[in-house]
Amino acid sequence: RxxxxxxxLAQLAEQLTTSQLKQLHIGTSTxxxxxxxxxxxxxxxxxxxxxxxxxxxxxxxLDYQLPxxxxxxxxxxxxxxxxxxxxxxxxxxxxxxYALAAQLEKPYRIICRDDELLAPNACRDWANxxxxxxxxxxxxxxxxxxxxxxxxxxxxxxxxxxQTLAANATVPSTLLIADSLSNADIAEQWLQLGRRITRDKLxxxxxxxxxxxxxxxxxxxxxxxxxxxxxxxxxxxxxxCAGCTAALSLEHNPGAxxxxxxxxxxxGLPLYA
Length: 273
Hints:
The chain is about 30% helix and about 20% strand. By secondary structure, it is an alpha/beta fold. The strands form 2 sheets. The chain has an 8-stranded mixed β-sheet. A 5-stranded parallel β-sheet has the order 11-10-9-12-13. β10, α8 (about 215-220) and β11 form a beta-alpha-beta unit. The radius of gyration is 21 Å and the shape is globular.
């Protein structure tokens, strides 16, 4: 497969004709939804990066093992008419990808999907990285003060606010868990809430979308259920069929990685947070 994909790489430059296809999005798996992306996942001391181009009639996908294939990656990217890099995830980002902007001498933007820019890191000069970026885009205005204080020379922008949905006329009885359960502290809060609902016989049902190591103990509370997964049915439709009318977040101090608002907007649910 790799050999076939590499054979197509020579023609890829001619296919990157739109401005969107010339913007390289760098991040975890969510970045792969972009027309041109470089995604990564860590594997112990190594990382695998995947260059993906959504070109017709057949998308291109080429893998690189880092750091071994770093020079090949640089060579391939230099052969493409990339005009801008867009970093979407910086937490645990391989150093080879962090260095791409300087090595390719391309302008870059940062769309914050985590708060890594605020974290001390002996191996990353985040202040300089932020200062040289064309802009740093934050998901909401409440984060501006925190970022401006830590990165005073950075150009900070705020994402457009999605249209706010009206709250339910009646108190919802079935709610979707909108928090990421990868955060143990938040997962523990949901566990306590589920137990309280059962203990106090509260008229509430909570639904979990997706999978998590916390699913089993949460389901054991009796108040929390897995969102039914029906083949061919969109998540938004599954939520509707389950009688869910709102999303709920227990995060008290959300950072840039908080995706509850995006999830609620995507599913057409008002968010209680």
